[in-house]
Amino acid sequence: MASMEPVSSWNSNSVLSVMELTKEPMTVVPKNYIRPDQELSAPSDYSTLTTIPTIDMKKLAWGETSDLELEKLHSTCKAWGLIQLANHGVSSSLLEKLKHEIEEFFMLPSEEKMKYKARPGDVEGYGTIIRCNDQTLDWGDRFYMTLNPIQKRKPYLFPELPSSLRNTLEAYISELQKLAMTLLGYMGKALKIEIKEMEELFEDGMQSMRMNYYPPCPQPELVVGLTPHSDATGITILHQINGVQGLQIKKDGVWIPVNFCADSFVVNVGDVMEILSNGAFTSIEHRVTVNSDKERISLAMFFNPKFEAEIGPVTSTLSPRNPPLFKRITMEDYVKDFFSRNLNGKSHLENMRIKSGESTLAA
Ligand code: OGA
Ligand code: NI
Predict the structure, then answer these.
(1) Per the domain annotation, does 172 fall within a domain?
(2) How many angstroms does the Cα of residue 316 sit away from the middle of ligand 1?
(3) Which tens digits make up the pLDDT trace of 298-334?
(4) How many domains does the chain have?
(5) What pLDDT was estimated at residue 36?
(6) According to the model, what pLDDT value does residue 125 have?
(7) Is the CB of 288 under 6 A from ligand 1?
(8) CA distance 219 to 161
(9) Residue 98 Cβ contacting ligand 1 at under 6 Å
(10) Where is the Fe2OG dioxygenase domain (predicted)?
(11) Which candidate among 78, 119, 152, 242 keeps its CA 20 to 30 Å from the CA of 72?
(12) 202 Cα–ligand 2 center, Å
């Protein structure tokens, strides 16, 4: 049975899909989606926007250009907290296949998708769990799941995906794992963190993914596709699957739309990277806005240190003039803390910060 209920009968623990909601003609969005808190303006014109600096993987690798590109990587991660990654090496044929498979998945009948529905008390699975009648909701369907370590994959999620999607995702994951490790190595180099130290933290680390589908909305200026947040990760590699814009970042207190190039990935500096770098790199608050004509589809891959790792500012980033700004904590406790909260800007990272007067030894 599909777990879709009309808005008037939302029950606690039912799983909601905006895609289903929008199958019925609609001119006014249900009140749970309206976000007076969100400083939304008229739909943005993405053609005239700020373009985030592009980092070229080939230039990073190539002797003569690598130093300059590394400097650019450093300054962009510091000032913007996200980069556009060009020449990432993932083949366009694989990306085409991925687009096709993910679009097919979201087009499946609701009954099929609800096989993967989020279960009460769990963060993984498809759709949004309704906890109470007045819950504020995002205008998007998402499917979140753990990928690595493989034994942490939920048996009823990834292994049960349609085989063509699963195989394509496996190929994509393996490409992205290589890419993420290489990029993390360069980030480490830019921060003067030994490659060995980065490998010890991230090799075979915790990895997860979120597929997002944001349907067109009759009143896009009233809703958000994804609530403002910074990613709790080491890094996130975001692929904007069908080339539809919508990502915004909050820079110097102002929301600005991000104009991206369709061939590039967007890479977010996550909170963990801000911690490891002792604040030299900053994670950036971002959100997704929607539009009235075209759905937006994206795939975010999250790369983290391993569960057993302890995270905190890496020794080489510290000096008497540069004392630790963040506490040390195991990845396991960090994740527990994260999932016990609602998405709320950078509040999770703030909780990791050493307050003035607090002993760093006790942390
Ligand atoms: C995320 C995210 C952006 C997007 O999943 O954490 O920020 O464009 N996604 O879907
Ligand atoms: Ni994000």
Answers:
(1) yes
(2) 31
(3) 999 999 999 999 999 999 999 999 999 999 999 999 9
(4) 1
(5) 82
(6) 96
(7) yes
(8) 33
(9) no
(10) 205-305
(11) 242
(12) 19
For the stretch 70-102, pLDDT in tens is 999 999 999 999 999 999 999 999 999 999 999
Quick one: residue 260, left, alpha or beta (phi over 0 = left, psi -120 to 50 = alpha)? Answer: beta
Identify the burial level of 340 via C-beta atoms within 10 angstroms of its C-beta, where 0-12 means exposed, 13-18 middle and 19 or more buried. exposed
240 Cα nearest atom in ligand 1 = 8
Average pLDDT, stretch 282-305?
96
The position carrying tokens 């993390």 is: 184
Residue at 44 is within a domain: yes
- Which residue is closest in CA terms to ligand 1's atom 9? 300
Residue 4 DSSP code: -
d(CA 292, CA 55): 32
- Domain region containing 104: 18-352
Domain CATH code at residue 52? 2.60.120.330
Pocket test for ligand 1, best of 128, 207, 212, 348 (most atoms within 8 A of CB): 212
Closest C-alpha to ligand 1, atom 1: 300
Q: pTM for this one?
A: 0.93
**What is the rounded CA–CA span in Å between residue 116 and residue 102?**
15
For residue 4, is it within any domain?
no
